[in-house]
Design goal:
The chain has 203 residues and is mostly helical. The protein has helices at 6-12, 17-24, 28-35, 42-52, 66-113, 117-153, 173-179, 181-202, and strands at residues 3-4, 60-62. It has a two-stranded antiparallel ribbon.
Amino acid sequence: MDKTNVAKFRKERGWTQEELAEKSYLTVRTIQRMEAGKDVSLTSLSSVAKALHVSVSDLFEDIEEEQKEVQVMEFSQELERQKKERRAEKSTMTLLTYAVLFLVLMLTGYPIGQLRESKQAFWGSVWIACLFLAMALLIYFNRIIWSRHLDRKYPKTVGYDLKRHVQEPIQNGWQFAARYWWIIFPIGGFAFGIFSAFWGATH
């Protein structure tokens, strides 16, 4: 019989078996079997691991059957691979979409700065409104449409918390941009629009 850490993790969080079952979308009976070290499917183990925010291998203190131990380790390794690749792909797409947004706003902001002062106020307001509209659309794309694509590509990561709770120190400008893009691009785009309007008005 396997020795599991499920009860330990559950009690650390102050949950009852019923609460863990609800958060894992499993029956109480399945949680009881798991805590008793009885055999359950990898799918059930994965559901509990998601609810507890731990890896599948962390659920076990000792696994009696060698074959099952191999299966659990292979599942955990594949999960970590998918989580790593999903994080990288999501960060790349997010940075790319906001870079395109910034480029488009920069190219459209310059002509506005060349308009007469009487027209700049109106089109400048339209430009700022388009900035926030475009940001909203990109957030929707990244969090809904692209997220669904990643769910299909990396099925084992669905439901897991993919955020890095311990952030690594920033070592260069690219890492700073990747981490704080959500501040840089809106401020940069807005600042460029103001600069373009000022340049057009004074030259």
